[in-house]
Amino acid sequence: MKTLFLAFLSLLAGAISTRGQTAPLGSGLYRSAADFLGHRLTLAVDCKTETHKLRMNEFMGRPYVTVVHGGKPYQVAKDSLFGFRDCEGQNYRFATDYYHLPILNPDEELLLYRVTQLAAGKNPGREDVYFSARAAAPIQVLTLLNVKRAFPGNHRFHDLLDAQIGNGDLTAYDQMHRMTKINWLLRQSQEMVVAH
Predict the structure, then answer these.
(1) Backbone phi, psi, residue 147, to 5°
(2) What's the CA gap between 104 and 19, in Å, rounded?
(3) Are 93 and 55 in contact (CB under 8 A)?
(4) d(CA 184, CA 14)
(5) From its phi and psi, is residue 61 left (phi > 0), alpha (psi between -120 and 50) or beta?
(6) Are 110 and 135 in contact (CB under 8 A)?
(7) Would you kindly state where each structural domain of the chain is located, as residue ranges?
(8) E strands of the chain, at which residues?
(9) Which H or E run contains 164?
């Protein structure tokens, strides 16, 4: 009986010690926003010990991703996926026209995406920034007005945006709080609502 009790305690201690740790994700596909938020990958590999290939097929205009996993090719429709994670640890979300956008702040509520278009000929390069109010929300161009429209009932957030950012950089990073300033203001506005 004492041995059984000690075994139970060691299992419980192991479960508690691993609870706060996150395992390395590796590379794979996110089927849904819920999978992205839960860090659940499909056709996943541990990049340190396994290899696989993710082909986006964008240049060919194909509406599917090809994943070579365990030596077998799988084709998955892009419109049935949220996005993917590569072996460098970068998360991406599929957008319209089957293109993928890098997620700049995957651990925050309001997600930011940045696309850099290189200069070509007489066209200067440019940088486009997008956002989604939540992982499952649609992707929009990042402007102050669009952010306010994405949170229509959160007037405290609107006021904080005007006071703290105004016409400034909506992608600014807050070193003190270790998150983007826009997400810090969103969190503050939500905490204010709960406090009242």
Answers:
(1) -65, -45
(2) 26
(3) no
(4) 34
(5) left
(6) no
(7) 23-100, 103-196
(8) 27-30, 42-45, 52-55, 64-69, 72-77, 83-85, 91-94, 100-102, 111-117, 126-132, 140-141, 173-174, 179-180
(9) helix 155-164
Q: Compute the distance between CA of residue 133 and CA of residue 109 in angstroms, rounded to an integer.
A: 7
Tally of CB atoms within 10 A around 78: 21
Per-residue tokens: 191: 């905490």
In angstroms, the first-to-last Cα distance of the chain is 52
The per-residue pLDDT string of the chain (196 residues; one tens digit each, 9 = 90 and over) reads 444 333 333 433 343 333 333 445 689 999 999 999 999 999 999 988 888 888 887 777 788 889 988 889 999 999 999 999 999 999 999 987 668 999 999 999 999 999 887 767 777 778 899 999 999 999 999 999 999 999 999 999 999 999 999 888 999 999 999 999 999 999 999 987 666 5
Distance from C-alpha of 54 to C-alpha of 158, rounded to nearest angstrom: 40
